[in-house]
Amino acid sequence: MIIANTLADGFVVFLTEAHSWTNDITKGAVAETDEQAESLLTAAKQAEQTNVVIDPYLIPINIEDGLRKPTEYREYIRATGPTVPIPS
Amino acid sequence: MYRYDEFDARLVTERVEQFRRQAQRRLSGELTEDQFKPLRLMNGLYLQLHAYMMRINIPYGALSSKQMRQLAHIARTYDKGYGHFTTRQNIQYNWIQLKNVPDALADLAAVEMHGIQSSGNCIRNTTSDQYAGVARDELEDPRVYCEIIRQWSTLHPEFSFLPRKFKIAVTGSPNDRAAVKLHDIGLRMHQNEQGKTGFEVIVGGGQGRTPFVGKTIRDWLAPEHLLSYLEAILRVYNLDGRRDNKYKARIKILVHQIGTDEFRRLVDTEWQQIKDGALNLPQSEIDRINAYFTPPAYAQIDDETESLNEQRTQNPAFDAWVQANLAEHKVSGYSIVNISLKSPKLPPGDVTAVQMDALADLADEYSFSELRVNHRQNLVLADVPQKDLLSLWTKLIELDLATPNIGLISDIIACPGLDYCALANARSIPLAQEIHQRFQDIDKVHDIGELTINISGCMNACGHHHVGHIGILGVDKRGKEFYQFTLGGSSDQNASLGDRTGKGFPADEAVNAVEKILNTYIMVRNDGERFLETYRRVGMKPFKEALYGSA
Ligand code: SF4
Fold first, then answer.
1. With a cut of 70, which residues of chain A have pLDDT below it?
2. Over the range B156-187, which residues count as b (16 or more CB within 10 Å of their CB) and which as e?
3. Helices B531-538 and B507-524: crossing angle, nearest 10°?
4. How far is CA B392 from each of CA A20, B73, B363, rounded to the nearest angstrom?
5. Separation between Cα atoms, residue B57 and residue B44, nearest integer Å
6. CA proximity to A2, closest of A32, A24, A33, A31
7. Model confidence pLDDT, tens digit, residues B353-392
8. Which residues contact B267 (CB under 8 A, 6 or more apart)?
9. A84, B430: Cβ pair inside 8 Å?
């Protein structure tokens, strides 16, 4: 999947099939082949050029029980938010 | 407290408007990220793991209640309702949106606050003793000189592109609470043989991946020469500090490579040229700044020994708090109250907007409308009449701000780590919370006594792990979080760097390792001996055996 931060608010987003951006990992596009990954990355880089997002890149994910889980724990935390509750 | 003059105020508001235009140009696509990044960093705006992060300076840790209320307003209006106090006496907001930053900065400027020089290769916020001006052991108020340094270093044209960031700390007490030996420049006030107060100048301390305890390059410097001498040090560093390798660019590397004597010689040569020039600090200027720090109108009261003792006897929880969280005030009848930001519920240093507002009210009611932030991520009400301690404590309890653990095991420094920080290798906050959970028993906590556990999520050492009595460094080992331990670090007047115990532990064994270290301490300590003293006496061997078995 492609992960990035939006420019205006900075929040973490994923690229969708329609080449829009979503905060919801379940709605992001999953590339199954290298070619698909390449084409997602090209679309993402374009969005970087047009100043929609910052620093998009590909992350590997696993699908566990139908849920998408970034394989690296850094990206997992990035995708799902801090592992400690937000103070309130 | 220092109040902005016309010059300060204009500088900050002009910067806000400048940044507003820069942000607009970035949002409209006129500026690329590469062009914009240095501009946002100059105003303390980072991009972290999840979002933008805005860092705001709190000069030498001093906050008025009005400023604290504004910090609450920022948290509530532009962020997720909380802020994080850092080991640099600053505050960070973790969820700020770029489009809102100019408005947030304008609101901050209205209370004389900003993020200028909170990032980048420049002179950063000068830090100090959180008990400045009120400590019983203090020689002179270091804030006066911090403020003088702030004015000199703010937008100093010659030093806005240093090889690397530059941090200065000042203490006016023999008991160093500002970790001056771990800064690029540490200044320790003391008296010379003639009884005149001046500065010991310590250079090249620092943490990060190559930690050093600073070296003294001048035993005593007269206050009038402070700025010219600092300028001479910065000039030598600016010219000779390495710029080819980010990891070798701090002044500590230069001092280490050329040696203390050679560094001193270079500084002295430079200094001779500018000494007694425009940077000379006349007594009148010192007095002028000093006037901003005139002590508040203390009431003439005696220490409340009897009634306080009675309250303590009747209320063991209050007693535990008094014992752990209070420090001696120089004026009779008053106490310095430490407010622990290390409750079991919140990450170290985090405060909600509700708590910030309430703290501002408490400062108004009990402590001349002022608060301080310290480098251990706690807050201080510096001037509380002892007769009010019980009522203050009662209110702090309701706010979950009365954890009685200052200087004890659960008063843990933890950097944001991988829960927030883009540079992190491992998380810090959950480990701090686990340790806190494990050591809940108040008798055991008091039995262990004075102990600092410092946790960093990577080699950058924002969590000061090198100088924790127990230091913990998070590393990434083949895609898993591991924690390496050091023992025997300290950031006080007898500063030392901790020694590595050996190989690291996976996340689920880290708390057990802490427990093994402490059980060993309890076994081998002499009567009344603190952890650090025991470690310095017995060395690593028994701890290593407890952690890894005997070889
Ligand atoms: S020590 Fe590392 S992980 Fe922790 S705040 Fe600093 S840079 Fe981030």
1. none
2. eeebeebbbbbbbbbbbbeebbbbbbbbbbbb
3. 80
4. 53, 23, 10
5. 9
6. A31
7. 999 999 999 999 999 999 999 999 999 999 999 999 999 9
8. B217, B229, B232, B233, B236
9. yes
The number of residues making up chain A comes to 88
Mode of pairing for the β-strands spanning B91-96 and B127-128: unpaired
Q: How far is the CA of B208 from the centre of ligand 1 (A)?
A: 10
Which tens digit of pLDDT belongs to each residue from B378-437? 999 999 999 999 999 999 999 999 999 999 999 999 999 999 999 999 999 999 999 999
Q: Does A77 touch chain B (CB under 8 A)?
A: yes
Assign 3-class secondary structure to B294-357: CCCCCCCCCCCHHHHHHHHHHCHHHHHHHHHHEEEECCCCEEEEEECCCCCCCCCCEEEHHHHH
Distances in Å between the Cα of B154 and the Cα atoms of A57, B157, B161, B202 are 38, 9, 13, 21
Reply yes or no on whether the pLDDT at B550 is more than 80: no
Tokens standing for residue B241: 């500090």
CB B95 within 8 Å of CB B80? yes
Q: What is the pLDDT of residues B213-234, one digit of tens each?
A: 999 999 999 999 999 999 999 9
In contact, A56 and A48? CB cutoff 8 Å: yes
Rounded mean pLDDT, B28-36: 96
Residue whose CB lies within 8 A of the most ligand 1 atoms, among B55, B460, B466, B467, for a mutation test: B460
**How many C-beta neighbours within 10 Å does residue B458 have?**
23
Is residue B329 within 8 A of residue B134, CB to CB? The reply is: yes
CB–CB of A9 and B51 under 8 A?
yes
Rama region for B400: left / alpha / beta (φ>0; ψ in -120 to 50; rest): left
- The alpha carbon of B405 is separated from its chain's Cα centroid by a whole number of angstroms, namely 18
Cβ A47 vs Cβ B29: under 8 Å: no
Residues above pLDDT 90, as percent of chain B: 96
A80 touches chain B (CB under 8 A): no
Phi/psi at B87 (5° precision)? -75, 0
The complex's ipTM? 0.96
B348: closest CA of chain A, how far (Å) = 11
- List, chain by chain if needed, residues with CB within 6 Å of any ligand 1 atom: B 415-417, 421, 423-424, 456-458, 460-463
Q: What angle do CA B398, B403, B406 make, to 5 degrees?
A: 145
Query: Residues of chain B with pLDDT > 70: what percent?
Result: 100
Asked if residue B305 has pLDDT above 90, the reply is: no
Domains observed in chain B: 6-109 (3.90.480.20), 134-292 (3.30.413.10), 305-398 (3.90.480.20), 413-548 (3.30.413.10)
- Residue B177's φ and ψ, nearest 5 degrees, are -105, 5
Q: Is residue B508 a contact partner of residue B550, using CB atoms and an 8 Å limit?
A: no
| pLDDT beyond 70 at B90 | yes
Q: What is the pLDDT of residues B243-293, one digit of tens each?
A: 999 999 999 999 999 999 999 999 999 999 999 999 999 999 999 999 999
pLDDT band of residue B443 (cuts 50, 70, 90) is confident
